[in-house]
Write a structure and sequence with these properties.
By secondary structure, the protein is of the alpha+beta class. The protein is 41% helix and 18% strand. It has a two-stranded antiparallel sheet. Strands 3-4 form a two-stranded antiparallel sheet. The longest helix has 19 residues. The radius of gyration is 14 Å and the shape is globular. The model has no long low-confidence stretch (mean pLDDT 78).
């Protein structure tokens, strides 16, 4: 397996926000943005069935969760 195809140690489901080990649960979907990892078949199906606008909403919530989890500044500056 090349470094480009390496499965990450952790992943965050873009639908529900759950953090999990994608090596233990293999629910994935691929598109022009790359490979997406999901905690369950339900989340994967929900993502694949969604239209483009809904998918953008999933990603907006996902990036907001990442920012909140990793921001070291005070809350007003973080947002």
């Amino acid at each position: 397996m090349t470094a480009k195809n390496k499965v990450p140690d952790t992943a965050v489901d873009p639908v529900c926000g759950k953090t999990f080990d994608p090596r233990e649960v293999q629910f994935t979907s691929s598109d022009d943005q790359g490979i997406h990892y999901f905690c369950s078949e339900v989340c994967r199906h929900q993502f694949e069935a969604a239209d483009t606008k809904t998918k953008k909403g999933f990603w907006a919530k996902y990036t907001e969760r990442l920012k909140n989890a990793h921001c070291t500044r005070t809350p007003p500056e973080c947002r």
